[in-house]
Amino acid sequence: MESPVFAAIGFPAVCPDCGARSECWGTQALVDDCPRWDTESVCPACGFTVLVCGDDVPAGMRERILSEHGPARLQVGPVVGNVVIMRVLRTALGMDLAQARAALRTVLAGEWSGTLPETEFLARRLRAAGIDAVVLRP
Q1: Which pLDDT belongs to residue 43?
Q2: Which string of DSSP letters, residue by residue, matches 4-29?
Q3: Average pLDDT per block of 10 residues along the chain, 138 residues long
Q4: Other beta carbons less than 10 A from residue 87's beta carbon
Q5: Residue 48 burial by CB count (10 A; 0-12/13-18/19+): exposed, middle or buried?
Q6: Distance in angstroms (rounded) separating the CA atoms of residues 84 and 95
Q7: Rounded to the nearest 5°, which phi and psi values hold at 10?
Q8: What is the C-alpha separation between 9 and 24, in angstroms, rounded?
Q9: Class of residue 95 by CB neighbours under 10 A (exposed 0-12, middle 13-18, buried 19+)
Q10: Residue 48 near residue 28, CB atoms below 8 Å
Q11: pLDDT given at position 1
């Protein structure tokens, strides 16, 4: 089992219960090779608490993570066949054939990037399929 990988951010919010300013925390993680995210907010004024989690990170949270931490890049070693990479892209990311073909060019050029947990998720799937893949951290 590989180590968990995560990216966390803090951001201000307004309490939906009393309107006071509160601090929220958001985390995107890869735990046991499963992508997850969660947010937590506790109002210091009234104690109102919100905890939310799921599989696919919300776009706004993803953009905040990328803005704060920068993108991680995927790098693959010499590849004998492109079919294996395309199969992993289709399976791991739910791409159709045309999307996988376009993504393949990005991966082979060393231009595939995303949040650290997203990029590590894909790298682990590629390694499991026999492709030499590493993540270059921001």
Answers
A1: 94
A2: PEEEEEEEEEE-TTT--EEEEEEEEE
A3: 89 93 94 91 94 90 95 90 92 95 94 96 95 92
A4: 14
A5: middle
A6: 14
A7: -115, 145
A8: 8
A9: middle
A10: no
A11: 67
The conformation of residue 113, written as its DSSP 8-state character, comes to E
Q: Cα-flanking dihedrals φ and ψ of residue 99, to 5°? A: -65, -40
Q: What is the pTM of this model?
A: 0.88
How, if at all, do strands 5-14 and 21-31 pair? Answer: antiparallel
Tokens in use for 92? Answer: 């791991």
DSSP per residue over 28-97, as a string? Answer: EEEETTEEEEEEEEE-TTT--EEEEEESSPPHHHHHHHHHHH--EEEEE---S-HHHHHHHHHHHH---H
Strands 49-54 and 133-136, how do they pair? unpaired
User: Rounded distance, CA 3 to CA 15, Å?
Assistant: 35
Partner residues linked to 128 by β-bridges:
none
